[in-house]
Amino acid sequence: MSNIPADDLTNSVSKLVELNQQIKEARSDIKVLSQAEKALKLHIKKLMVDNGLDVINTKTGKITVKKSVRKVGLNKDTIREGLSVFFEGNEEQAETALKVIVESLPTKETSTISVTGSKKKTTSE
User: How far is residue 41's CA from residue 38's CA, in Å, rounded to a whole number?
Assistant: First the structure.
């Protein structure tokens, strides 16, 4: 091992594992709340649209239904379709151009740390 004190590494790893477990439990709780919120939002939106309501004023603010139209995201399929139109249906040219585009995409290297298989320790009393 390098110049890292063993106690410092042990304590840091223990804290990381404990924090990871707490975050996992909190995410589980948040997931349940988010699902309930999403279901209520969908229900309220349906009721508002069915009744022709754009805005509902509440004590703490307002609920608004907004419609928007936007372009879909740029992905391999949309690029392929666009190139096919550009090359007037010539699939070979479209595929070649797509291949050149995909191969020229820059790469990005990242480094992460992950904790897997951490289970709660059970204590017997």
Answer: 5
Q: Same domain, yes or no, for 29 and 49? A: yes
Residue type present at position 32: V
Task: Identify the pLDDT of residue 119.
Answer: 58
Residue 94 CB neighbours (<10 A): 20
Q: Which of 73, 98, 76 is nearest to 87 (CA)?
A: 98
Task: Take residue 50 and report the two structure tokens written for it.
Answer: 């069915």
Within a domain: residue 47? yes
Pairing mode of beta strands 62-64, 55-57: antiparallel
pLDDT tens-digit map of 65-105: 988 888 888 899 999 999 999 999 899 999 999 999 999 98
- What ranges in 51-90 are assigned the alpha helix state H? 76-86
Q: Into how many domains does the chain fold?
A: 2
